[in-house]
From TrEMBL:
Keywords: Membrane, Transmembrane, Transmembrane helix. It is found in: Membrane. Residues 226-245 are annotated as: Disordered. It is a multi-pass membrane protein. InterPro entries: EXS_C (IPR004342). Pfam families: EXS. It comes from the Eukaryota. It comes from Skeletonema marinoi. Residues 14-231 form the EXS domain. This is EXS domain-containing protein.
Length: 245
């Protein structure tokens, strides 16, 4: 997208067929690849009878909701009838709202591990009934960046997930459509950078939790072995036979 804008700079991108297809295909390709990967993982999970295989299907649906707005937007640029273009605009807004809401819920619940257990924070680490414990209860017990930073990132992610609403003021805020697209792309880059902080944090917490569970299993196994007393040599038949001889 940026390459296409730079190629025609300082002139606006011409409304030709190749100028619509090339950036649309380039923007759709990452979502298509990720959706296919999720479907492959779902198939593998079904073969292994994985109880969580449905998550891959839900993730594939998330990426598919990103594809439809791109398809409708590309088709809309080829329409000259204003009435039909307005109808497509309303349909496009519905698709964008569905995609933003679905993706936001996935960010919070699946990618960041938040809002999965609202009672977890009250019983973890002896937290008192304060604003901090409420934040931990609503989000998750462990917040390595702290509650204020995590809430701030969450709020920014919510706002930037719906940055497409700037299209309603496109003519008032931006000199042309290309600048509007460029601005939304930069906002998306900022959102992804902040999203990555909590994503890596949650992955680190999950890995440490797995290591702690493995360590607890090892300790429990050692304790069980400690209770198994060895057989007394004096009670064995072979030892008694040696004593008689």
């Amino acid at each position: 997208m940026l390459w296409h804008l730079a190629w025609h700079y300082p002139e606006p991108v011409p409304m030709e067929l190749h100028s619509i297809i090339i950036p649309s295909v380039a923007a759709s390709l990452p979502y298509f690849i990720r959706a296919r990967q999720c479907l492959v993982m779902y198939t593998i999970g079904a073969m292994k009878a994985d109880a969580k295989k449905y998550q891959h299907m839900l993730n594939a649906i998330k990426y598919s909701t990103s594809l439809w707005p791109l398809v409708v937007s590309a088709y809309q640029k080829t329409i000259t009838n204003e009435k039909e273009k307005a109808a497509l605009e309303a349909f496009l807004i519905v698709l964008l709202a569905i995609n933003s809401t679905y993706s936001l819920a996935w960010d919070i619940i699946m990618d960041w591990g938040m809002m999965q257990n609202t009672c977890a924070g009250g019983s973890n680490g002896g937290l008192t009934k304060s604003h901090s414990s409420c934040a931990h209860s609503v989000l998750r017990p462990k917040l390595r960046f702290g509650a204020p930073t995590s809430i701030g990132i969450l709020f920014i992610d919510i706002v930037l997930r719906y940055s497409w609403v700037l299209r309603f003021w496109e003519t008032d805020l931006f000199p042309n459509a290309d600048i509007y697209i460029l601005c939304t792309q930069f906002l998306e880059a900022i959102r992804r950078s902040l999203w990555n902080l909590l994503r890596v944090e949650w992955e680190h917490i999950k890995q440490n939790k797995g290591k702690e569970e493995d360590a607890d299993d090892d300790v429990e196994m050692m304790e069980q072995k400690a209770f198994l007393a060895p057989k007394s040599r004096s009670m064995s038949p072979s030892f008694q036979h040696k004593q008689r001889s």
